[in-house]
Design a protein that fits this description.
It is built from ten helices and twelve strands. With 273 residues, the chain is of the alpha/beta class. The strands form three sheets. It has a five-stranded parallel β-sheet with strand order 1-6-5-2-4. A five-stranded parallel β-sheet has the order 8-12-11-9-10. It has a two-stranded antiparallel ribbon with strand order 3-7. The longest helix is centred in the middle third of the chain and has 10 residues, at 104-113. It is globular and about 50 Å long.
């Protein structure tokens, strides 16, 4: 496996396509066209992969607060994971997308938040898989039954109050994962208000991959975060708690395990303004 336990190569996945201890999940999604990911999956996907939808499966219903993609109810997502053959503490789940881990990392983070450490992302995503001429299909996989028990690790997540109370402490760093122009408030394509949470530093999530969607090496991930290595706590947010998970993956690849997700992110923060 390249990089670490959190990443698998297309070659590794091809060799484990029929492994009963591996469940592959297609996480492709488009924020601009919420039906697109499901349509792409039905047209062609990695053999034996199941589909989980960002809005329907990896988030819960939007409310007044909580942002645009609130975390799913643990019991709801546990049922869905059981229905695709995931067994707690046993099954290796491999998540992929075609957006430089934007959505695959959300599933990667969610599983670890739910107490399941056996999860990796596919390096290079669906495009990398196709470039390697590995098998794709439009045949839907047969349902598999697993037993997934959610054990939410509440220390991996923070809410509005925690961010507000802790962000200015000297040992705490608040990381904004959005593109720099959104961080600076020059452009805001989605949310009602532009700008960033006061005190946040900007580490755009796309920087952990090259332009083809392959992860930068572990030393490069380390270098990216070296200024934050001494922080006591790193609180990470984006627009709605999705692409922030890409930075949380990068932190783990760098060997820095003190990142926490502000799940509601900017879209939750501005709901209190």
């Amino acid at each position: 496996m390249p990089h670490s336990q959190f990443v698998v190569s297309p070659t590794w996945l091809f060799e484990h396509l029929e492994d009963p201890q591996v469940v592959i999940v297609d996480c492709r999604f488009s924020l601009a066209d919420p039906q697109l990911g499901q349509q792409q999956y039905q047209a062609s996907h990695i053999k034996n992969s199941y589909y989980l939808d960002l809005n329907q499966d990896l988030s819960s219903l939007v409310g007044k607060h909580g942002g645009r993609h609130p975390l799913p109810n643990p019991n709801d997502i546990a049922k869905k994971l059981s229905a695709i053959g995931v067994n707690s503490q046993k099954t290796l789940v491999v998540a992929y997308d075609d957006s430089r881990f934007a959505f695959a990392a959300r599933l990667w983070w969610l599983l670890r938040y739910l107490g399941h450490e056996q999860v990796a992302v596919l390096d290079g995503g669906f495009t990398g898989w196709q470039k390697a001429s590995y098998p794709i299909t439009d045949i839907l996989p047969t349902p598999r039954m697993g037993t997934f028990v959610a054990q939410a690790q509440i220390d991996k997540v923070v809410d509005f109050t925690a961010v507000k109370n802790r962000k200015d402490r000297p040992e705490v760093v608040l990381v904004d994962s959005r593109e720099s122009d959104r961080y600076r408030g020059e452009r805001e394509p989605i949310d009602q208000i532009a700008g960033h949470i006061p005190g946040a530093v900007n580490y755009p999530w796309q920087e952990i991959t090259d332009s083809s969607g392959y992860l930068l090496s572990q030393p490069e991930q380390r270098r990216r975060w070296e200024q934050l290595e001494t922080a006591g706590e790193i609180l990470v947010y984006c627009g709605s708690g999705v692409t922030a998970c890409v930075n949380l993956l990068s932190l783990e690849l760098a060997g820095i395990s003190k990142g926490k997700l502000y799940a509601g992110s900017w879209s939750d923060w501005i709901s209190y303004m």
